[in-house]
Design a protein that fits this description.
The protein has helices at about 1-10, 255-260, 410-420, and strands spanning about 15-20, 20-35, 50-60, 65-80, 85-100, 105-125, 125-145, 150-165, 180-190, 195-210, 210-225, 230-245, 250, 265-270, 275-290, 295-305, 310-325, 330-345, 350-365, 370-380, 390-400. By secondary structure, it is mainly β.
């Protein structure tokens, strides 16, 4: 029934062009995924098969002064394997836009997503990844004013909110909803036709039921286009943060597993107690086109990020992906990444969890409006709190009808470019971006690649 409804929506809202160059598309994706360790546990592993049907509508408009991209999708999902069989609804709302005149540019983005994802949670075994239904919302905006041909100034502001609920009923994990905002100023300088320099200073607020944190992050970034095939960017930053507890409780002054085993005694932290931290942040990326068919993207970063355990975290990421178009219809993808999350412990210490991921897959254009995605992903976690290193293997296949991008799948290469947080390096370096592509551009350059459905 759900599939029939989705196809009906796709038929009613085909690819159409309306007034002022609006392009609207309706379509549907269907996906099957097998995960041999759905909850990413080291013992009592549970495999799961998830079937999903996701109808969507996309829209885009481009004029001399405006550029708008929008996606709305609602997914109907069923999971077999863990008892009992569960149904859930996923969703995605994405909107990006820009308005410009001779000297000024306004840009904005609104997003909301709901999906079951792996989140850090406090458990009796320490801080580990658990699968949770995650609702993530954000609103961001920037303004830029060109003082001269080389200098421009601007401002940025944003808000975010995250809420979680454990998928596994009766779970002893503790997840903390959080929200916050950021405001900042940006100064940009075009040094040459190939080199841009961007400096920013951002104030960031994080709040949960457990802590409240304020951070100031100044950042300096450079992007240089060595050739039409090679672009390299880099950014360095520092941060100063104050974290204030909102509850009186016993906490472990080091890795929680040492307290749970009795090696270290918990300490009493009172509501209003503060800790002060500072340190470096950084980021960089390399985008190299070996040819018109082969492209390499690599990035690294260390950022401040909102944590689902109730406090801010320092998150590191190193990743690389290779895309090769074997033919006009077949594209292959290969990627690998390493991530780390540093959690504050007590009033002065930190502990670190690490994560590894690899993926391989392909996209095949079955027909003019039909595309097939297949892939395999491997993930492994190494916890500071737990000597076990759980891993999972995921195999999936999906079919998309009328999707305007290269692929509706959340491939690593597209994902790395979106994981940029305001003021926490790497910073966005907008002056060197390519001119916006048209709504009906080739799939490998589609604006909709920033909105994966799966």
């Amino acid at each position: 029934m759900a599939l029939r409804l989705a196809v009906l929506v796709a038929a009613v809202v085909p690819s159409v062009a309306v007034a002022q160059a609006w392009f609207v598309r309706g379509g549907v994706t269907a996906r099957g995924e097998f995960n041999d360790n759905y909850f990413l546990t080291s013992t009592g592993k549970q495999s799961a098969f998830t079937a999903s049907v996701t109808p969507f509508v996309t829209a885009a408009q481009q004029t001399q002064t405006t550029d708008v991209t929008a996606v709305l999708a609602v997914g109907l999902n069923r999971v077999w394997g863990p008892s009992p069989t569960t149904d859930y609804v996923s969703g995605l709302l994405g909107l990006r836009g820009a308005i410009s005149d001779e000297r000024s540019t306004w840009t904005g983005a609104v997003s909301f997503s709901r999906a079951p994802s792996l989140q850090n949670a406090q458990t009796p075994a320490g801080v580990v990844l658990v699968r949770a239904y995650t609702n993530a919302a954000s609103v961001n905006g920037t303004y830029s004013y060109a003082l001269t041909e080389r200098w421009s100034v601007g401002a940025t502001a944003g808000w975010y909110g995250n809420s979680y609920s454990a998928v596994e009923s009766g779970s002893a994990s503790s997840l903390s909803d959080n929200s916050g905002y950021n405001v900042g100023a940006v100064l940009s300088y075009r040094a040459t036709e190939r080199t841009d320099v961007v400096a920013s200073a951002v104030f960031w607020r994080y709040s949960s039921d457990i802590t409240r944190a304020d951070a100031v992050v100044p950042t300096l970034g450079v992007v240089h286009e060595f050739s039409p095939q090679l672009t390299v960017s880099g950014a360095v930053a520092g941060y100063w943060s104050d974290i204030e507890t909102k509850q009186t409780a016993f906490v472990c002054p080091t890795s929680p597993i040492l307290c749970s085993t009795g090696i270290v005694q918990p300490m009493l932290v009172f509501s209003g107690d503060q800790r002060h931290d500072s340190g470096p942040l950084f980021g960089g990326s390399v985008n190299y086109a070996f040819s018109q068919r082969t492209q390499l993207y690599a990035s690294l970063s260390q950022t401040l990020a909102p944590g689902s355990t109730g406090g801010i975290t320092r998150t590191g990421f190193v990743g690389a992906s290779l895309l090769h178009r074997f033919s006009d219809r077949l594209t292959g993808r290969l990627g690998a990444s390493y991530g780390s999350t540093r959690f504050p412990a007590g009033l002065s210490n930190w502990y670190t969890d690490k994560f590894y991921q690899g993926e391989i897959g392909a996209s095949f254009q079955l027909a003019e409006y039909w595309a097939l995605d297949v892939g395999y992903r491997y993930m492994r976690a190494a916890y500071a709190d737990n000597p076990s290193e759980p891993s999972s293997n995921i195999v999936f296949i999906s079919v998309a009808y009328n999707w305007p991008g290269a692929s509706p799948t959340d491939w690593l290469g597209a994902r790395g470019g979106r994981e940029i947080r305001p003021g926490a390096g790497p910073i966005l370096l907008p002056a060197r971006r390519e001119p916006p592509t048209s709504p009906e551009s080739p799939p490998e350059r589609s604006r909709f690649d920033a909105f994966p459905l799966q």
